User: Fold this.
Amino acid sequence: MTASKLALGTAQFGSDYGINNKDGKVPLSEVFRILDKAIGSGIDTVDTAYAYGDSEEAIGKFIQSSPHRLRVISKLPACSRGEVKKIFGASLKRLGLSYIYGYLIHNFPDYKKDQGIWDELRELRKEGAVKKIGFSLYYPAEARFLLDNGADFDLIQFPFSALDQRFGPCLPMLKNKAVEIYTRSVFLQGLVFRDPAGLKGRFTAAAEKIARLKGMAASAGMPVPALCLNFVAANKLVDKVVVGVDNLAQFRELISAEKNAGQALPAGHELAQLALDDEKIIVPVNWGKGELSLCAK
Assistant:
């Protein structure tokens, strides 16, 4: 894996995001240091959203102060068709840009309810305000709906990890349509780092898989983050792996993790056996508030 296959997720730049985030929203000075480190490491893409607090503003302040160009992907929140261009314009103003690389529908049920929202995004693409449009998804059925109905999209983002391999069958079909594929949740918001013995409730079903994951990493001589990152990035059908960080030190660890790319991954069939199917475990939006925080770390 090369650093250029990473994209920087920025939810933490605008809000207190993530089960392992002890420090809250990343201070602006730290945001600048992280973005400088990203550029210096060959990472030129940032993933944000209108709904990520003031993440777009923080990125915009950096862009205005830096000679380097960043490829920005943002997302449209739940809204009506008539609100699309107003919200998009607000995002551009926050970012201080005249156009962005990618714009995704963040709430798929809104699209299914009123596909006129998609017409608005297509118009923005036609006007040159955005280069690529697409969707941020949670469930493979959503991707299949788009493929079955011939939706004209350029970019897609969804969760994909050693524990969550649900979208695997969709990858070849998406790539055949020349769709740019971004994956996220490679660490399942930190679940893979937890002590399996301390997991409680619904998460006890993941304990055995996490223990095996850690055993595979140890056998391969790789840190767990490196194994998780390389499992996804080694997939030639994946274009970018979106990773979020809470601070610069954590980001440096991820940059270091990618340097383990030359080490052999466990056999594909071994990694395939780590997959979990229970969406109450592998889809964080289904977690009860504070539920995982009750488990030992």
In short: The chain has a mean pLDDT of 91. The longest strand covers residues 130-136.
